[in-house]
Amino acid sequence: MNFNTLLINEKKPVCKKITATYQLDNGVLGGPVESEFSYKIENSTKVNINIEQLGIRKIVITTEKEVSTGILFSLCQSIEKLLMLFEGRFVPLEYMCFSDSDEFTDDNLIEAGTWYKDKRLGCYESSDFSMYNCNKIISYNEVINEKLLKDWIELDKELDLASNVIFYALSKNFATVDIKCIFSIELAEAFIDLIKERKGLFSSLKPGNRGTTLKMCLDMLITKYGNLIFEEEIRSKKDFLQMFVRSRNRMMHIKRHQGDNYLDGAESILYTIKFFNLYRIIIFETLGIDEGFYLDNLKLSIAKWNEWEEVLEKFLNRID
After folding, report:
1. pLDDT band at residue 101, thresholds of 50, 70 and 90?
2. pLDDT at position 186, please?
3. Beta-strand (E) ranges in 2-92?
4. Residues paired with residue 52 on neighbouring β-strands, in sequence order
5. Which of 117, 135, 153 is the last residue of a domain?
6. pLDDT for 254-273, tens place per residue?
7. Residues 106 and 207 in one domain
8. What is the mean pLDDT of the chain?
9. How do residues 35-87 score in pLDDT, each as one tens digit?
10. C-alpha distances out from residue 10 to 7, 13, 41, 68, 109, Å
């Protein structure tokens, strides 16, 4: 019986192990680096997670008893998303396989691995501009553990669609760069809500209600979390926030003859990255990751992006 027949019969294979291998299309990953820790999934089933890297990356998850391939696949993707926040990119998945089952054949498990790999969402394929090494600000082996992964999975669920938007904004297949940037700007309201619920800050803001504008949300987030990321923009004393709002309005309220007071293509790339940095810093703080693990690398990354193709300088020069 092949895997598709098993799905039709609503009988997903169960096993004790998933192995996923990742490799850059161009270049190799550093190493040797390795992290290993225990974790608990449904019904308190204990699993062992090993993430090793030397040229390529391998994630191996083993369980003490057989569980659904879907559960193992979901856990593996949660790890991938957390690593992406550290590194600013998804490393391409080269191969995925399941193994160690008393009930299902090796052929069933191989087919299952291929099926899950082929069904992955487009957000797991990172855009070219997100593949730059400077986007990496945390080495996973320095911070990842059982508690961090558990807290991330809970936060990922809480963020819901907003989490997907973060990853799609840096993906290869989602949309043109201007649309990606607009969605990144729009995420400010979701993060205001998150911070209100988690920390009790920004109580005067009510995103979606009359009296709370997108510009107010952007201003509050950047003032609290983004002074380093938007340091040059703030120093310029230009109304760069209004340019973000105009760009959002241009897409959300389509009209003719809107002029050029909005982000162009290169600027959209720059600010997609900057907003990604803003949101991942908020996520890191929410997860309790000390800034000592990433602050120096973040400064270097921001400096490189601020110098990229003179985009920032030209942007500030053309703001009213």
Report:
1. very high
2. 95
3. 14-22, 29-40, 46-68
4. 34, 58
5. 135
6. 555 555 578 999 999 999 99
7. no
8. 92
9. 999 999 977 899 999 999 999 999 999 999 999 999 999 999 999 999 999 99
10. 5, 10, 22, 12, 15
* Whole-Å CA distances, 294 to 86, 236, 290: 9, 26, 8
Whether residue 68 is found in the same domain as residue 187: no
Eight-state DSSP code of residue 126: B
Range of the domain at 74: 3-135
- Domain membership of residue 217 (yes or no) is yes
Determine if the peptide bond prior to 92 is cis (ω within 30°): no
Q: Which residues contact 59 (CB under 8 A, 6 or more apart)?
A: 18, 19, 20, 22, 49, 50, 51, 76, 79, 80
Distances (CA, A) of 132 to 2, 126, 167, 274, 308: 40, 11, 16, 14, 12
Question: Is residue 218 domain-shared with residue 276, that is, in the same domain?
Answer: yes
Q: Given this model, what pLDDT does residue 177 score?
A: 93
Query: What Cα–Cα distance (Å) separates residue 38 from each residue in 7, 98, 144, 177?
Result: 30, 19, 11, 39
Residue 240 shares a structural domain with residue 121: no
pLDDT at 7 > cutoff 70? no
Looking at the predicted structure, is the pLDDT value of residue 90 above 50? yes
Interatomic CA distance for residues 48 and 62, integer angstroms: 5
Identify whether 152 is part of a domain.
Answer: no
User: How many whole angstroms separate alpha carbon 253 and alpha carbon 241?
Assistant: 18
Do 179 and 313 fall within a single domain? yes
Three-state DSSP at 109 gives: helix
Q: Please check the confidence at residue 13 and state whether its pLDDT lies above 80.
A: yes
Separation CA 59–CA 51 (nearest Å): 5
- Is the residue at 141 inside a domain? no
Report the domain count for the chain. Answer: 2
What mean pLDDT is predicted for residues 214-235? 97
Choice among 163-167, 171-175, 253-257, 305-309 with the minimum mean pLDDT:
253-257
Instruction: State whether 124 and 179 are in the same domain.
Output: no
What is the C-alpha separation between 317 and 305, in angstroms, rounded? 17
3-class SS at 166?
Answer: helix
Residue 71 lies in a domain: yes
